[in-house]
Amino acid sequence: MKKFEYFDVTADIGFYAYGNTLNEAFENAGLAMFNIISNTDNITPTKSITFEISSEDNVSLLYDYLEELLFYHEVEFMLFSEFEVQIMDDYSLKAVIGGEEIDWDKHERNCEIKAITFHQMEVSITDTVQLKAIVDL
Prior knowledge:
- By secondary structure, the protein is of the alpha+beta class.
- It has a single domain, classed as Archease domain (Archease, Possible Chaperone, Chain: A, domain 1).
- 26% of the residues lie in helices and 45% in strands.
- The strands form two sheets. Strands 1-2-7-6 form a four-stranded antiparallel sheet. Strands 3-5-4 form a three-stranded antiparallel sheet.
- A hairpin with a 4-residue loop joins β4 and β5.
- α1 packs parallel to α2.
- The longest helix is centred in the middle third of the chain and has 19 residues.
């Protein structure tokens, strides 16, 4: 199973993230998001950040999770390449994300993400999990 793939949206970029579990799909969503910003293969996880969030449903939880990732990217001036997510039944999650400070001499500069959007955001759970999200560039 592929981890993620992108689709075109005017002035934005969308992605599908996949997983055998909701946790794995959220982890792959983080990976997909940071591959928009830079090639995550070149990001060494030398520092980790742990956070917890809760929301009212799975779609809102996905939105809040991606927002939190973008927040840490902007505030800590970091890129992330490792994501460990534990989602609880009450629409809360605990995440440990690993990355390093941005060094544009080392890291590829792809696209800047301005915001996460709710537009067309989806969480589909069947035998596998598929997430759909669009980010504003």
